[in-house]
Design a protein that fits this description.
The complex is a heterotrimer of chains A (about 325), B (about 290) and C (about 550). Chain B has helices spanning about 1-10, 15-25, 30-45, 45-50, 80-115, 115-130, 135-145, 150-160, 160-175, 180-190, 190-230, 240-250, 255-285. Chain B is mainly α. Chain C: This is ABC transporter substrate-binding protein. Chain C: Belongs to the bacterial solute-binding protein 5 family.
Chain lengths: ~325, ~290, ~550
C-alpha cells in the first residue's frame, strides 16, 4: 500500500467518523422526547409563541428535510445559530474550546510523562513490592469519584492553604505576565484531578504489555547476548510496549478526556466545552449540541491521525509499508 | 465419534483454570480485592438486615457520625449508613445489568465478526465509529431526553460500553478462529454456531471475565457521574444519589461525611475490581516473573 | 532519529501546541487605573458576585434564566420596583396609573441617559412595549401583555398605554416585569425576539448603574460603572466594577466566598447551609423576603382528582410542618393554604387556615368518597407526581409528600424530571400531581387569572369554576384597591375550600456576602434580593 492511498483511506475514515457523529447526534436530538421551544420560553408560553419558535428553528419541517438542510449548511461550514443564545454556534464553541484543549492537553502530557516510567518500573519488578505499590497508587487514582476529590482539593488547597484560586480559568483584570501566571494557578487543581483519574490506565497498560514483551523471544535473545538489562528494558521492550499505549491515548481521548471533563469543569467552574455541552443539554439547544459533538468528533479524528503517525514512527513494520 | 473429536480438540480447560487459581491465591492484592468485592455484594444482598430503608425525615439534620448514626445524617436527617447500604443494591444492580447487556452484545458481535469475515468489516467499522463518540456527553443527552430512571441509566451505560468489549474480545476470537483445531472442527460439522459455542466462546471466557469486572466498575462510576449531574433515578437510593443530594444541599465541604462514605464505597468497588482483573490476568499469564 | 529523540520531539511539539493555545493574554487597557488605596472605605472597589448559572441571553426581553435577569437588570431599567409587601415602587417611572379604564400612563424620571450619551425618553419605553407585543419574544413580559393594545410617547417623559379591555393590573404589572431597552440599538437589529444583543457591534448600551464590558462564557461577566445613575444618592455607583462569576457547583461557590475569591453569592443559599454560613467568620447572611410560593396542584382532568374529597384527603396527607421545619429549616411561612400569601399584607386573609395533616381523617374522606382499602390498608389510588430535579428543595420534600400519602394508603409515584422535560410535561398536562414553585406572585388579580382561569397559562389544576372565574374577572376590572381586596379574598377562599390549589409556603430566602461589604438594599425575591441595581450601586467596601 502506497503512502498516498494510506493517507487517502485515513482521511476517508475521518470523514466517515464525522458523518457518523453528526448523524447520531442529529437523530438522537429529534427522536428522543423533549421540546426545545419549551426549554427556552418561560412557563407562560402561548401556543402562538411555541409555533413561531418551532418555525424559527426549522423544527416544523419533516425529518429528512431538516437533515438534508442541516448537512447542506454543514458542508458550507455553517453550524447554525444557537437556539438559546441567538449567536453563531461557531463563535460560541470557539470561546470554550481553547480552555478544554489547554486542560486536556496539559494533563495528557503530564499523565504520559508520569505513566510510562511508572509502568516500566512496575513491569521490571513485577510481583515485587514496588510493583504492588505502583499498581495500587495507579488504580487508586482511577477509582476516585471526581467531584468529591475536586471539592476536597478545593477545600484543602484553595480554602485552607490558600495556594490556588477557586474556580475559573484566569483572574479578571490581569494582563501580560500576571495573566499567564493566573492561567497557570487556575489550571493546577483541575489538571491534577484529570491526571489522577487517567494515570492508572496508562501505568497498567504499559506494565502489562511490557511484561508480555519481556517474555518475547527477541528480548530473551538480547539478554542472552549480554545486553544490559536496563538497556533491553528501556530500549527494546518499552518500544514495543509503547504501541498499545499510543492506541490507548487515542481511545482515552474519546472515552474520558473529551467527555469526562464535564464533571471536572463543573466542580472547578472551568469555562470549557464540557460544561457548555451540559448547559446546552439542559436548554435543549440543538444546533449548539450538534456543533459541539461534531467538534468533539473532529478532535478525536485529529488525535487518531496523530496517533497513527506516532505509531508509524515507533513501529518500523508500519513504516516499511506492510 | 464426536466424543473423540471433543477430547482431541478442546483445550484442557479445567486444568488451566486450576493452575490460574493456584497462582492467583499467591497474589495478596488479588485476594484482598476478591474479598472486598464479595463483601460489597454481601452488603447489597443483606441490606434489609443491616438497616431500615431510609425514608421520611429525621430529627438531627446534618449530624456528624456518632454511635446512633455511624456515617452521620444527611440534610433531611436520614441515616447515611442506611443510604450507603441500600445504595449498594442499586449501584451494583445498575453495574451488573449494564455490564451484562454490554458483555452479551459485545461478545456476540465480536465472535460473529471473527467467524464470519464478511460481517467483521461492518462490525469493526461500527465499533471504531462508536468508540470515537464522546461517551459521557451522549449519556447525559440520552438520560436528559429520555427522563432519568433506572432502566434508562442501565440502557445508556450498556449502549456505550459494548464496543469496548467487542474490540477486546474480537482480537482474541480472531486468533482462535485461525487455530488448526477450529479448522478441523469446520470439517466435522456444518453448524458454525456449534463451533462458536464449543470452541470460540470458551477460549474468550477469561477475557470476558475481565471485561465483566472492568465494565461493571466503570458503570458504577458512570452512573454516579450521571446521578451527580441530576440524571439519576430519584426513587431509589444509590451512591450517586447520596452524592447528588449532598451537592444540592451545598454540604460537600461542610458535612464531610456526606460525600466521604458513598465516594469511599465507589472507590472500594472500582479499586477492587481493577486489582482483581489485573491479578487474574497475571495469574493466567505464566510468563510473569519471567 | 532514534526512538527516544522522536518521543522527545513529539513531547516538545505537544508543549508548543499547548503554549500556542494559551498565547492570547488580554492587553492592558490604555489608561492606568489607580485602585485599592488603604484607609477606611476602599475607593472604587470591584464587587465580585457568584452565580450558579451562565448567562444564556443578553436580550432582557428574551432571557429568562436568573443570571440573565441579574446582569441585564443592571443595564436595562424597569419602570417600577417592588416593596417587601408586593407594593410597587418608583424606579424609572415616577408616577403611573390610569386615565380611564382603557388608558394607562407612566411619567418618567426626567434627564435619564443611555451610556452612549443618547437620552432615555418615553419613546424608548413605547418602542419596547410595542415591539414586544409585535414580535412576541419568549421572556416573561409578553405574557403580561394580553390586554395591552399599544403604547405612545406623548411627550419625552410621558407614555400612554391603550388597553384592549379594562385591566386594573396591567399598568403595575408590565411596569414591574418589563425592562426598557434602547430603541436606537434594538430597532436596527430587527425583531426583538431574535436579537442576541451580544455586544458584537460596538458593545452594550446601558441606562443602569453598570455596563457590560467583557464576557468569558462559563467564567465571568465584567461590568463597568456608568457615572450617571440618578437612582442612587450622588448619582454615581460606589463600586467601579462588578464581576459576575459562574460556579456551576454550589459547594465550590460557597468555598470561594469563604476564601474571599468572590464577595457575594447571588443565588439563594441551600436552607441547610444558612446556619453554617451565619457562624463563618467574615461572612454576613442577609434575609430576603419571599414573594412567591411553593405548591402542589391536583390535575382535575383525572377522574379521581376531579372529586373534592380526594383532593382534600391528599391535602391532609402532607406534613406541612415537617416540610417547613426539616427541609426548609424553618425558613418558610405557611400561607394558610391560600394563594394570597401573608407578605401581601393588604390582600392577606388570616381567617383561612392551613389544611390539617391527618392521614386518618384522609382515610375517612376517601371511604366517604366510595373507595375501599384492601387488606393492607391500601386504597386503589396511584398518582404520578412530577417536579423539577433542578429544584433541590422541592426534590427533597417530594419524598415527604410520598411518604405522607402512603400513611393514608395512597400511592404516589415520584417523577423527578430534567427541567425541560418537566416543563414539557407540565404544559401538556401529563401528570396527576404537580409540585413546583413561583418566584414572584406579586399581584393576586393577575396571578389568579393566570393560575385559575380556564385558559390561564399556569392553570395546572385545569380548574374551571364559573363562580371563581366571575370573581377573578371582576377583580381585574376593579380599579379601586379597597373594593378589589374583598373580591380577591372571596376567590382565595373558594380556591382554599375546594382545594383547587395547595399552596404550601412562602420561602424566606437567605443570601451571603463578605462582611467587609455593606450598604446593600435588600428587595424581595431571589430575582431582586441584594443584586437589584440600586443595591449593587450602593454597596461599599471597608478595608480591614
Amino acid at each position: 500500500m502506497s503512502l498516498f492511498s494510506f493517507v487517502l483511506r485515513r482521511i476517508g475514515r475521518g470523514v466517515l467518523t464525522l458523518w457518523f457523529a453528526v448523524t447520531v447526534t442529529f437523530l438522537m436530538l429529534r427522536l428522543l422526547p423533549g421540546d426545545p421551544a419549551l426549554a427556552i420560553a418561560s412557563t407562560n408560553m402561548t401556543p402562538e409563541i411555541r409555533a413561531r419558535l418551532l418555525n424559527q428553528y426549522g423544527l416544523d419541517q419533516s425529518l429528512p428535510v431538516q437533515y438534508v438542510k442541516y448537512l447542506g449548511r454543514l458542508v458550507q461550514g455553517n453550524l447554525g445559530i444557537s437556539f438559546s443564545q441567538n449567536i453563531s454556534v461557531t463563535d460560541s464553541l470557539m470561546e470554550m474550546l481553547p480552555w478544554t484543549l489547554l486542560l486536556v492537553g496539559v494533563s495528557l502530557l503530564v499523565t504520559i510523562l508520569l505513566g510510562i516510567p511508572l509502568g516500566v518500573v512496575a513491569a521490571s519488578r513485577a510481583g515485587g513490592v514496588v510493583d504492588r505499590v505502583v499498581q495500587v497508587v495507579a488504580v487508586t487514582g482511577q477509582s476516585l469519584f471526581v467531584p468529591s476529590v475536586g471539592i476536597l482539593l478545593l477545600y484543602v488547597f484553595g480554602l485552607r492553604l490558600g495556594l490556588f484560586p477557586i474556580g475559573g480559568a484566569y483572574t479578571d483584570g490581569t494582563y501580560g505576565g500576571d495573566w499567564y501566571l493566573s492561567v497557570l494557578t487556575h489550571l493546577v487543581l483541575p489538571a491534577v484531578s484529570l491526571v489522577l483519574v487517567q494515570l492508572g490506565a496508562y501505568v497498567l497498560t504499559v506494565r502489562s504489555t511490557l511484561i508480555e514483551s519481556l517474555g518475547e523471544d527477541y528480548v530473551v535473545l538480547a539478554r542472552a547476548n549480554g545486553l544490559p538489562y536496563r538497556r533491553v528494558l528501556w530500549k527494546h521492550a518499552l518500544r514495543n510496549a509503547l504501541l498499545p499505549t499510543t492506541t490507548l491515548i487515542g481511545l482515552q481521548i474519546c472515552l474520558y478526556l473529551v467527555g469526562g471533563v464535564i464533571l471536572i469543569e463543573t466542580v472547578y467552574a472551568y469555562p470549557g466545552i464540557g460544561r457548555g455541552i451540559y448547559d446546552a443539554v439542559v436548554r435543549l439547544d440543538f444546533p449548539l449540541l450538534q456543533g459541539a459533538f461534531l467538534l468533539l468528533a473532529a478532535v478525536v479524528v485529529v488525535v487518531n491521525m496523530i496517533t497513527d503517525i506516532v505509531y508509524g514512527l515507533l513501529d518500523p513494520r508500519v513504516k516499511a509499508g506492510s | 465419534m464426536n466424543m473423540a473429536v471433543e477430547s482431541a480438540v478442546t483445550p484442557p480447560a479445567p486444568r488451566a483454570g486450576w493452575l490460574t487459581w493456584r497462582r492467583f491465591r499467591r497474589e495478596p492484592l488479588g485476594l484482598a480485592a476478591l474479598i472486598v468485592l464479595a463483601l460489597l455484594v454481601l452488603i447489597a444482598a443483606a441490606a434489609p438486615l443491616l438497616a431500615g430503608y431510609p425514608s421520611g425525615y429525621g430529627d438531627a439534620v446534618l449530624a456528624p457520625p456518632s454511635g446512633d448514626h455511624w456515617f452521620g445524617t444527611d440534610s433531611l436527617g436520614l441515616d447515611v449508613f442506611a443510604e450507603v447500604v441500600w445504595g449498594a443494591r442499586q449501584s451494583l444492580l445498575v453495574a451488573a445489568a449494564a455490564s451484562l447487556i454490554a458483555i452479551v452484545l459485545g461478545t456476540l458481535l465480536a465472535v460473529l465478526g471473527a467467524y464470519f469475515r464478511t460481517l467483521d468489516t461492518v462490525i469493526s467499522v461500527i465499533v471504531d465509529l462508536t468508540l470515537s463518540l464522546p461517551v459521557l456527553p451522549l449519556m447525559i443527552l440520552v438520560a436528559a431526553l429520555a427522563g432519568p430512571s433506572t432502566l434508562t441509566i442501565i440502557f445508556v451505560i450498556a449502549a456505550f460500553s459494548w464496543p469496548e468489549v467487542t474490540r477486546v474480545v474480537r482480537s482474541q476470537a480472531l486468533a482462535i478462529v485461525r487455530l488448526p483445531y477450529v479448522d478441523a472442527a469446520r470439517l466435522m460439522t456444518s453448524s458454525p454456531f456449534w463451533i462458536i459455542r464449543r470452541h470460540v466462546i470458551p477460549a474468550v471466557v477469561p477475557l470476558i471475565l475481565v471485561s465483566v469486572v472492568l465494565t461493571s466498575s466503570r458503570a458504577v462510576l458512570s452512573a454516579a457521574g450521571l446521578a451527580f449531574l441530576g440524571l439519576g433515578d430519584p426513587n431509589t437510593w444509590s451512591w450517586g444519589r447520596i452524592l447528588y443530594e449532598a451537592q444540592q444541599a451545598g454540604a460537600m465541604s461542610t458535612a464531610w461525611w456526606l460525600p466521604l462514605f458513598p465516594s469511599l464505597a465507589i472507590f472500594l468497588l472500582v479499586l477492587a475490581s481493577t486489582l482483581l482483573s489485573t491479578a487474574y490476568n497475571d495469574a493466567r499469564n505464566p510468563r510473569r516473573n519471567g | 532519529m532514534t526512538p527516544r529523540s522522536r518521543v522527545a520531539a513529539a513531547v516538545a511539539a505537544a508543549t508548543a501546541v499547548i503554549a500556542a493555545l494559551a498565547a492570547c493574554a488580554p492587553e492592558a487597557p490604555g489608561s492606568g487605573s489607580n485602585a485599592g488605596t488603604g484607609g477606611q472605605a476602599v475607593a472604587d472597589p470591584t464587587l465580585t458576585i457568584a452565580t450558579t448559572t451562565d448567562v444564556v441571553n443578553f436580550n432582557p426581553l428574551v432571557g429568562n434564566s436568573r443570571s440573565d435577569y441579574w446582569i441585564t437588570n443592571l443595564m436595562y431599567p424597569h419602570l417600577l420596583s417592588i416593596g417587601a409587601d408586593g407594593q410597587k415602587a418608583p424606579e424609572l417611572a415616577e408616577k403611573w396609573g390610569y386615565v380611564n379604564s382603557t388608558t394607562g400612563f407612566y411619567e418618567l424620571k426626567p434627564g435619564m441617559k443611555w451610556s452612549d450619551g443618547k437620552p432615555l425618553t418615553a419613546k424608548d419605553v413605547a418602542y419596547t412595549l410595542n415591539a414586544v407585543k409585535k414580535d412576541a419574544p419568549a421572556g416573561t413580559l409578553y405574557g403580561q401583555l394580553t390586554n395591552f393594545a399599544s403604547a405612545t410617547a406623548v411627550s419625552d417623559t410621558r407614555v400612554e398605554i391603550k388597553l384592549s379591555k379594562p385591566d386594573a393590573s396591567l399598568i403595575p404589572e408590565i411596569g414591574f416585569w418589563g425592562n426598557v431597552v434602547p430603541q436606537h440599538v434594538f430597532e436596527p437589529a430587527g425583531s426583538v425576539a431574535s436579537f442576541a444583543n451580544d455586544g458584537k457591534n460596538g458593545g452594550w448600551v446601558s441606562a443602569g448603574p453598570y455596563v457590560l464590558k467583557t464576557v468569558q462564557r462559563g467564567q465571568s461577566y465584567t461590568m463597568e460603572r456608568v457615572d450617571n445613575y440618578p437612582l442612587v444618592p450622588g448619582g454615581k455607583p460606589k463600586a467601579a466594577k462588578v464581576v459576575y462569576r459562574v460556579y456551576p457547583d454550589v459547594n465550590a461557590e460557597i468555598l470561594s466566598l469563604k476564601n474571599g475569591d468572590v464577595d457575594a453569592i447571588a443565588n439563594t443559599l441551600p436552607p441547610a447551609q444558612v446556619k453554617n454560613l451565619k457562624s463563618s467568620p467574615g461572612i454576613t447572611v442577609e434575609e430576603v423576603p419571599g414573594l412567591g410560593y411553593a405548591h402542589l396542584t391536583y390535575n382535575m382532568t383525572k377522574p379521581a382528582l376531579a372529586k373534592k374529597e380526594v383532593r382534600l384527603a391528599l391535602a391532609q396527607t402532607v406534613d406541612y410542618n415537617a416540610i417547613r421545619k426539616v427541609v426548609l429549616q424553618d425558613q418558610a411561612v405557611s400561607t394558610g393554604s391560600s394563594p394570597i400569601m401573608p407578605v401581601l399584607k393588604t390582600f392577606y386573609d388570616d381567617s383561612l387556615k392551613e389544611y390539617e395533616y391527618n392521614p386518618d381523617a384522609a382515610r375517612m374522606l376517601l371511604e366517604q368518597a366510595g373507595y375501599v382499602a384492601d387488606g393492607n390498608g391500601k386504597f386503589p389510588l396511584t398518582f404520578r407526581m412530577i417536579y423539577s430535579l433542578q429544584d433541590p428543595v422541592t426534590t427533597q420534600w417530594a419524598n415527604l409528600v410520598k411518604d405522607g400519602a402512603a400513611k393514608a394508603g395512597v400511592t404516589i409515584q415520584l417523577q423527578g424530571l430534567e427541567r425541560n422535560t418537566y416543563l414539557a410535561k407540565t404544559n401538556a398536562g401529563d401528570f396527576d400531581i404537580y409540585a413546583g414553585n413561583f418566584a414572584i406572585m406579586d399581584d393576586p388579580a393577575t396571578n389568579m387569572a393566570l393560575t385559575y382561569l380556564p385558559k390561564g397559562a399556569i392553570n395546572y389544576s385545569y380548574v374551571d369554576d364559573p363562580q371563581l372565574n366571575a370573581l377573578i374577572e371582576k377583580a381585574r376590572v376593579t380599579f379601586d384597591q379597597k373594593e378589589q381586596v374583598p373580591i380577591l379574598q372571596q376567590a382565595a377562599k373558594l380556591v382554599h375550600d375546594n382545594v383547587y390549589d395547595n399552596v404550601m409556603y412562602t420561602q424566606n430566602l437567605f443570601v451571603a456576602h463578605r462582611s467587609e461589604w455593606s450598604g446593600f438594599s435588600v428587595k424581595p425575591s431571589e430575582l431582586l434580593s441584594i443584586v437589584n441595581p440600586v443595591s449593587v450601586a450602593s454597596a461599599t467596601k471597608t478595608a480591614k
